[in-house]
Amino acid sequence: MTAVEMSNIQVAFDDVQILKNLSFSLPAGEILCLLGPSGCGKTTALKTIAGLVKPQLGHIDLFGESVFSDNKIDLSPQQRSVGFIFQDYALFPHMTIGQNIAYGLPGLSKEEKQQRIEESLQLVELPDLQQRYPHELSGGQQQRIAVARALAPKPQLLLMDEPFSNVDGQVKRRMMADLRRLLKDHNISCIFVTHAKEEAFAFADKTAVMVAGDIAQLDKPAVVYNLPKNCAVAEFMESGNLTSLRHSQKVLDRIDHHWHKDLDNSGYWLFKPQHVALKRSLQNTGITLTDTTYIGRGYQYELSIQLDKHNPDKTIIWKAENEQPLDINIGDNLAIEYLASPHWLQN
Fold first, then answer.
1. Residue 35: beta bridge partners?
2. 3-state DSSP call for residue 252?
3. What is d(CA 184, CA 265) in angstroms, rounded to the nearest whole number?
4. Exposed/middle/buried for residue 113 (C-beta within 10 Å: 0-12, 13-18, 19+)
5. Boundary (domain end) residue, out of 237, 256, 277
6. Which segments of the chain does DSSP mark as H helices, in order?
7. Are residues 308 and 204 both part of a single domain?
8. Do 233 and 218 touch, CB atoms closer than 8 A?
9. Could you say which of 195, 217, 237 is where a domain stops?
10. Cβ neighbours of 302 (radius 10 Å)
11. CA R_g for the chain
12. Which residues form the signal peptide (predicted)?
């Protein structure tokens, strides 16, 4: 079954097009990340699914039921049976945790509400906080309570806007693992929004990179990172060193490589930093080390590659990575060997 089907959704505010014929589908039980920079339309897309933003055109189905269709059908958020977690969690400060959860359960008896409260708090492993207030909780606990409140009505679909942005480090990693396990155990479909690709890698089954109101690529996170479809995706994902084909031959003349391909003047090559091997050279190679940064998993080296021997200012910048520190210093001339075949991009 398909949990979400978005077809040609268009949203504009004050004649500014926010979503441009946005289309995608989410199989039931899967977790999708809408990933992209600020202003790309990802939060608007999420709110459109929830019924908080009304499109001008398009069609939205949730679990086979039409919830929006070109202004002829427009079910309210309450009728769509989705859970929504806002970026700031939106917990009512004057209510206890139990009251916050009960607020989203209209129509149930007092006994039924209490049962749902206890069940949802048990799901997020905070069964003893029912009488506490939001300000008495840590950021991680507030996030779990927001999840409990969203799941208390037992929705089939959970929507989350930047759910991990207020939690740092080890707490975030554990929270993502715990929430992912909870969603999978209960077969709850989920769409979440973030600008942090690391969250997409850790939490999502599929990642949709949004650019200027549309999806540029939707696939497994590893595919999007390693095989981006275009330069916009590669640049946002920080997939590697993009080099235009008009510069490629000049670069290849300066590096050792083991692959061959006819070059023309269109498109780009994507060179992975972890596939760039460096060593100091006693010759003037036209490749200079300009910076070194420790990045936790190893060391990142910034290189300046000269494109024109008659114009030393005409250069491009590459990144290289190595697990262990190399015996090279800023200003050194370097020799480069590229250890894999680069990925070609059309634009």
1. 194, 209
2. helix
3. 47
4. buried
5. 237
6. 42-50, 97-103, 110-123, 139-151, 169-185, 197-203, 221-226, 231-237, 245-252
7. no
8. no
9. 237
10. 16
11. 25
12. none
Q: How far apart are CA 338 and CA 298, in angstroms?
A: 18
Whole-Å CA distances, 185 to 14, 178, 180, 202, 304 = 43, 10, 9, 17, 50
Same domain flag for 220 and 255: no
Residues 249 and 232 in one domain: no
CATH number of the structural domain spanning residue 105? 3.40.50.300
Q: Model pTM?
A: 0.88
Tally of CB atoms within 10 A around 293: 10
Regions of the chain short of the pLDDT cut 50: none
Q: How far apart are CA 332 and CA 214, in angstroms?
A: 44
Give the residue numbers spanning the domain of 293. 241-345
How confident is the model at residue 72, as a pLDDT? 87
98: CB partners within 8 A, 6+ apart = 114, 117, 130, 131
